[in-house]
Amino acid sequence: MTVNDAVAKRISKLLAEKGMSQYRLEQETGIQHGSMQCIMNGRNKTVTLSTVILIARGFHMSLCEFLDDEVFSLAAPEEEQ
Q1: Fewest Cβ atoms nearer than 10 Å: which of 36, 54, 67, 70?
Q2: Could you give the CA distance from residue 7 to residue 11 in angstroms, rounded to a whole number?
């Protein structure tokens, strides 16, 4: 699982928990719809830390709170052989 995949899963989980729409998150973060769609659909392979910070703020939580989920322990990079 990539970091982008983990971020998308965390966003989906939080949207459901908070009863929040993706559109509202986009409004809260200032992230354009197309960019958010790329994250959510896995077309964006390199989500940046600044984007993750914006997303965390959009959920009214700290970056640490956003990253405090088991999905990020599954996003560890694969070891090179």
Answers
A1: 70
A2: 6
Compute the distance between CA of residue 73 and CA of residue 33 in angstroms, rounded to an integer. Answer: 28
67 to each of 24, 77, 80, 81, how far by Cα in Å? 20, 16, 25, 28
Task: Pick out the chain residues at pLDDT < 50.
Answer: 79-81
pLDDT at position 76 is: 55
**Going from the N-terminus, what domains does the chain have, and what CATH number goes with each?**
3-72 (1.10.260.40)
C-alpha to C-alpha distance for 3 and 61, rounded to whole angstroms: 19
Residue 71's nearest CA partner among 10, 2, 4 is: 10
Tell me which H or E stretch contains 45: none
